[in-house]
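Take a specimen:
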Amino acid sequence: MNASPKAFLLICVAAGALIAPQAIAQTVAPKPVNERAGTDAVGIGDIIVTAQKRSERLSDVPLSVAAATGPQLVKAGVVTAADLGKIVTGFTYQPSNYGPPVFSLRGIGFFDNTLAASPTVSVYVDQIPLPYLAMVGGATLDLERVEVLKGPQGTLFGQNATGGAINFIAAKPTAALSAGGSLEYARFGQFNAEGYISGSLSGTLQARLSGRTEQGGAWQRSTTRPGDKLGDRDFTTGRLLLDWDPSSAVHLELSVNGWVDKSETQAAQYLAYAATVPPPIGGTAQAAPIQAEPVPGENPRLANWDADTNLRRDSSFYQFALTGQFDLSDSVTMNTITAYSHLKEFSPYDADGTSFQNMYDTVIGKIDTFNQEVRFSGKLLNDKLSWMLGGNYAYSNSVDHSFLDFIASNAGVGPFRYTHIVNIDDVVSNAYAVFGGLDYKLTETLLAQVSARYTDQKQKGSGCLADGGNGTIATAFSVLSTAPFSAGQCVTFANTDPTDFPPFTPLGGLVHKTLSENNTSWRVNLSWKPNSDVHLYVNVTKGYKSGSFPRLPDVFQSIYAPVPQESVLAYETGFKVSALNRTLDLSGAVFYYDYKDKQILGYLQVPLFGNLPALVTIPKSHVTGGELNANWRPVNGLTINGGVTYVDAKVNHDLANAALYNTRDPNGQNINIQGYRFPITARWQASGGIDYGFPVSESLTADFGANLTYRSSTPATFGGGSQYILPAYTLVDLRAGIGSENARWHLQVWGRNIFNKFYLTNAAHVIDTITRTTGRPATYGATLSFKY
């Protein structure tokens, strides 16, 4: 640990030490808990959350949790999960080159191009799992609030939550008839419409139907075809909620939700030509046209893609989920979650940044998942002891086929060039888990918590490299084989040693591999609440993320080898304080994560295909950091909030096992990554906002607000030089509105990234080009909302 992290951690601890005694001296009577809290009348700590799978005040949760209400999300412009960085410090969204997005918390994410990549930040809606990030498109529809849990959450939310968990809480059906919606028009011709209707169907049955559609908004322009635009949004999502209370002891909730996405995928910006397999072995047909491609410069709208190419998705998702709460007695409750989800994916990507067909990738696949959870909870010893015991079964079946059309340096065996291949990666997973927890009040102010989860998972993977149907790779690989291949056939060789010499033996079909893993995650926590305004806690947590099968050209069956599960031992201490007569809420934490076998994106040398992005395992790494958050309501109607997170995520120095840290950078150079920073992990992140509302007459109110988001610079990969550095940036959003005093209608004008800051979200080496992915330019618009 260097001096900078130490200094920052000491500042956080000192701030807590200085503030806590002052707040203890200002003890006031606690305010009543309010399920609809979150307005100016109450503190942030009064928001009711379910971070520990039970309802409690945010300030009572001995974890680092960021929460925001539905109105706060709307004001901040949080339309998709990718926008959460505006209100959650330490959260990062990153698009992948040709796959699902990547969510990170405190520098912990999982970057992989497979459709069924298990994340490190798990996502839920009303505690119903969305096990893969490709499914989260409609999660932000019609929300009551969102809860973001930072740090490993494996004991209650399962494995694959080593970075944290995000729980979106949908707005619930109401007894009284109500309806509302919004209409929005924005720059680039984008139009959005949203609405809901809610009410009782009978004395015991209530319903809420909501939907949203987003249309238009093509914001990218071709560098060589000025009239050609890209970036249209064509996304529609809906949700039906039914709440049934057949008796005072039974509550059932049915959720039917889904979305259809026919939006255009984003094109990358071209930076430079860099052949994956240089001559004389590699092909040269692509060199001249790519080198003639114009470099866009710092204009976020400019990019390029193949002419007359359709980059529209044709993806969809639906989910049926039934949750139940059964009061078995005055002190014992049973909760159940039953969910089935289906994702269909058709996503084309042109990630090479040029108008030349260096690589055009179409991901076609589907995922079916089933999840069943049953848990029992209750209290004993005059409510001093709270307990929970449960079990979970999770099944998934993913079909992931990647169709690549390309003219590239690495597409050939001598004079035999191929232009169309298919990567097949299908995985079936079965996971069983049992979990439990105990909370014991040692005193009226001191609480001890212990929880654990045992998970047993078996994954069966099937994959191969296949001919795309035109016979080109079958012809080329037949030159290396003891038997000829035919068009459409798997062309993977049975050999396991890449140093073998041809002729190779054909495998004759798919490679089949099994990955069986088990683990026990746990958490021990001690928290102290001397009064309702001060909460200090310390916890130690062990968490795991399951192993994964990679998406690589399986030239040999040995390439289709899964990476093992990763584990983390996390230490955290933090505080939550209300001060100044509960108008100021402060929270902070310092943390240290000790990782083993961290799964991260690196580069590997693949026979015939050269240097390609691939999952690598880091034996030992660590994360050191801290955060500080504040929410201040100095006068009625005015809220000022802000937060800062420091993260130092690095590979360990492990001289005794130095060879285990050898890998390649994106340019194909051998490097040893001991001491390297994690890619896409900014050391400093900050966000802040101001919101002020006031009456202008007896019937009208006005409001204005601003948001600021800052990220320090970060490498996008291990090594590679300055072309793979994402510079620091600051984004500013502004808004102003006017509405009726009874909130029946509200008109807001807004601007996002108002200074048109050029910033990057990714940089990569894609086959024969170095590319970068830009953030969106300045966008402005108006939103009219209404409710009855």
